[in-house]
Write a structure and sequence with these properties.
By secondary structure, this protein is mainly alpha-helical. The chain is 40% helix and 0% strand. The protein has 11 helices and no strands.
Length: 300
């Protein structure tokens, strides 16, 4: 290949040329601006709402552009041939037969006729004890001696002041909450018709995509003449290695099992269900039993 000098016929305008094009032919009258008294101006704090890209973002964009240029200038002759190695083989014959037998078993279970089953009555051989039995079991064989409790002199007890742990809100908190309630009610009852229409004037416009592209464009473009006349026949054939791993046997079986379970639930006929009455085997003690227990504890 011969060296060819590239001649740019449509050069990009420089910053100075762009500034000259923006200058109008007739300049406006600025005599009033020079004679303006700056003491009449009020101090205003500027809030920057439209944030321009910072130094890190511009550096990152430049690095991305340089990376793309390095990819374009990469020499394919330095690539090496690679062989594809399949690391996730398909299921063998035994696993397929086992899966087929499981499907046949499930199909036989789904096609089973429930009408052939016989009615069976459940006999409970270990009944739960009733409330009365539980109360009798709680009563000890020998009751404790409580004569000292009856003869105890309450005048020996000391007076104790109860300390309230739940602290009520103070005066400032109540006033602050009351102020918040008043502010909310004022916002809710505000008349929107009193508002005036205002037009937003954007004083710091964002650069257009064309301006950003011109800023990102390097001053000296790389020489791409060799790429245009490159002979593709010198390239070597390379086998692509597939990185996407197929699911293994357990994952396929688990997913298939979930799909079958969902299908069984969707196709289930609710009309085959029978009405059942729930029988509570562990009954709570009644009010009469609780009163009887209190009387027994009081007498003892």
């Amino acid at each position: 290949m011969k060296h060819v000098e590239t001649e740019e016929k449509n050069p990009v305008p420089t910053a100075q040329v762009l500034m000259e094009e923006r200058i109008p032919d007739t300049l406006p009258d600025r005599s009033e601006v020079k004679a303006f008294d700056t003491h009449n101006l009020k101090k205003v704090e500027t809030h920057e709402k439209t944030v321009l890209p910072d130094k890190d973002a511009i550096c990152q964009e430049k690095e991305h552009t340089q990376f793309l240029q390095s990819v374009e200038r990469h020499q394919r002759s330095s690539l090496k041939q690679s062989k594809m190695c399949e690391k996730n083989p398909l299921p063998d014959k035994e696993s397929l037969e086992m899966e087929k037998s499981e499907e046949e078993k499930r199909a036989s279970i789904q096609g089973f006729d429930i009408s052939k089953m016989k009615h069976v009555e459940t006999e409970e051989k270990n009944p739960v004890p009733t409330a009365q039995v539980l109360m009798e079991e709680r009563i000890p064989d020998t009751l404790p001696d409580r004569s000292e409790v009856k003869a105890f002199d309450t005048h020996n007890l000391k007076k104790v002041e109860t300390q309230e742990k739940t602290v009520l809100p103070d005066k400032d908190a109540i006033a602050q909450e009351k102020q918040e309630v008043e502010q909310r009610s004022a916002v809710e009852s505000f008349d929107k018709t009193k508002l005036k229409h205002a037009e937003t004037q954007e004083k710091n416009p964002l650069p257009t995509p064309q301006v950003l592209m011109e800023e990102l464009r390097p001053e000296q473009l790389p020489d791409r003449s060799e790429v245009a006349h490159f002979d593709c026949q010198h390239l070597k054939k390379v086998q692509t290695q597939e990185k996407t791993v197929l699911p293994d046997k357990d994952a396929i079986a688990a997913e298939k099992h979930e799909v079958q379970q969902r299908a069984e639930l969707e196709d289930f006929d609710k009309n085959k269900l029978k009405h059942c009455e729930t029988q509570e085997k562990n009954i709570l003690p009644t009010a009469q039993a609780i009163a009887q227990e209190r009387r027994l504890s009081a007498t003892s």
